[in-house]
């Protein structure tokens, strides 16, 4: 698809200027001032911000198996509404994504839909049994795999995790860790995260594997990550919008890891400012009202992530918008080896049109996601997604 976007405030991780952007055959072809093209679809955005679309390093689409909570179509539509064109999906589906069959199913359904690009994680241990990693061998030449994860559960056995890291290193896969020491779950959720974070960093140091810590929420876990980086460990981490926007004393919404204290939030913000955080991951976790009542942890996140992060990080003066673009586009794209994330010639023509001055009131009734589970209901944030364009095609218009 070819499309010329005129009069845009073009922003990515290292650019910020008023100009035009031309996408040809689905890829960014030209960017500059006063670009003229004949016979192409032209849209004048009248000074609105155009950024690379967002990439989510962490989401749950519940397909196959729990499609009453979400399916690949509704999850993708939610992603597009939130300005996302790429998502990394976790494997806690039914069946669990430990086989080629499940991987094929997700990838085929996603490409038939043609909405967002999906990276489906294969689980570290087969069917989350915590012990078996032989299935990973069957994926060794599968170019679709960039990352493996036992998100939702975690890998309790340290030796198994070490062996999995060795396999991941050999294949240049990222190990995405849900850090939770089960012995402490329900007893001390802070210790549960901290201990496992320390263990995984230690194992990554020994094995040289590329480790990505999911949804980091405590000050101590973040400190271990910073220390690990200083020590040369190949570790990156993500922070969720909810762990930077909420504190336990005000809104203790059930999610795993839990909403933390003010001190933790302040430390996460400092880590973001100092460049210790690699990306924003939503941990989009749709549940029905009934399942939430029964205690299911998690919240939907794709449709609220940008306004929350823009308000809490940029409006509140923690970082500049270019840095936010790095956290929401460039770095997660790099993690998942997607040809996206910057306004650079040759990259996928995936951009989002934003009205940064527009206040949005969160209303779950308007969500495209089947999940309405959000602690942000009724809250107001700045930054509305007006349009999401993927490979030069307008796939969402607000
Ligand atoms: O809150 C959470 N929800 N944390 C997880 O680790 C899993 C997720 C889910 O799948 O619902
Ligand atoms: Zn998790
Ligand atoms: Zn998750």
TrEMBL record:
Q: Name one Pfam family in it.
A: Amidohydro_1
InterPro entries recorded: Amidohydro-rel, DHOase, DHOase/Allantoinase_Hydrolase, Dihydroorotase_CS, Metal-dep_hydrolase_composite, Metal_Hydrolase
| Coiled coil location | none
Gene Ontology BP terms = purine nucleobase catabolic process; pyrimidine nucleotide biosynthetic process
Q: Which residues form the Amidohydrolase-related domain?
A: 49-394
Q: Does the keyword Amino-acid biosynthesis apply?
A: no
Q: Which UniProt keywords apply?
A: Hydrolase, Metal-binding, Pyrimidine biosynthesis
For activity, the cofactor(s) needed are: Zn(2+)
Family statement: Belongs to the metallo-dependent hydrolases superfamily. DHOase family. Class I DHOase subfamily.
Supply the NCBIfam families for this chain: pyrC_multi
The task this protein performs is described as: Catalyzes the reversible cyclization of carbamoyl aspartate to dihydroorotate.
| Name listed for the protein in its UniProt record | Dihydroorotase, multifunctional complex type
């Amino acid at each position: 698809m070819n499309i010329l976007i005129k009069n845009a405030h073009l922003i990515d991780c290292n650019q910020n200027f008023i100009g035009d952007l031309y996408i040809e055959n689905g890829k960014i072809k030209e960017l500059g001032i006063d670009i003229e093209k004949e016979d192409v679809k032209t849209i004048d955005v009248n000074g609105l911000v155009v950024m690379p679309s967002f990439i989510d390093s962490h989401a749950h689409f519940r397909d196959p198996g729990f499609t009453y909570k979400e399916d690949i179509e509704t999850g993708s539509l939610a992603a597009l509404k939130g300005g996302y064109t790429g998502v990394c999906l976790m494997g806690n589906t039914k069946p669990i994504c430990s086989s080629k069959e499940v991987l094929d199913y997700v990838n085929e359904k996603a490409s038939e839909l043609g909405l967002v690009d999906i990276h489906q994680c294969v689980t570290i241990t087969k069917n989350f049994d915590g012990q078996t990693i032989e299935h990973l061998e069957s994926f060794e030449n599968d170019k679709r795999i960039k990352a493996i994860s036992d998100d939702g559960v975690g890998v309790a056995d340290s030796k198994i995790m070490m062996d999995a890291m060795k396999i991941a290193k050999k294949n240049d896969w990222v190990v995405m860790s849900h850090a939770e020491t089960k012995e402490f779950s329900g007893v001390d959720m802070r210790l549960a995260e901290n201990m496992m974070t320390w263990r995984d960093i230690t194992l990554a140091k020994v094995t040289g594997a590329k480790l990505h810590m999911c949804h980091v929420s405590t000050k101590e876990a973040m400190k271990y990550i910073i220390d690990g980086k200083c020590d040369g460990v190949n570790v990156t981490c993500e922070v969720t919008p909810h762990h930077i926007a909420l504190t336990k004393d005000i809104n203790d919404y059930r999610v795993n890891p839990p909403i933390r204290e003010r001190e933790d939030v302040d430390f996460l913000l400092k880590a973001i400012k100092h460049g210790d955080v690699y990306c924003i991951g939503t941990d989009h976790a749709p549940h029905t009202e009934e399942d939430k009542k029964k205690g299911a942890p998690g919240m939907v996140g794709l449709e609220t992530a940008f306004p929350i992060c823009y308000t809490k990080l940029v409006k509140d003066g923690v970082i500049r918008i270019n840095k936010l673009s790095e956290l929401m586009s460039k770095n997660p794209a790099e993690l998942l080896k997607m040809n996206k994330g910057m306004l650079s010639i040759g990259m996928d023509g995936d951009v989002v049109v934003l009205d940064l001055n527009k206040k949005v009131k969160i209303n779950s009734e308007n969500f495209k996601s089947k999940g309405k589970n959000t602690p942000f209901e009724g809250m107001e944030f700045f930054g509305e997604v007006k349009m999401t364009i993927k490979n030069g095609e307008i796939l969402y218009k607000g």
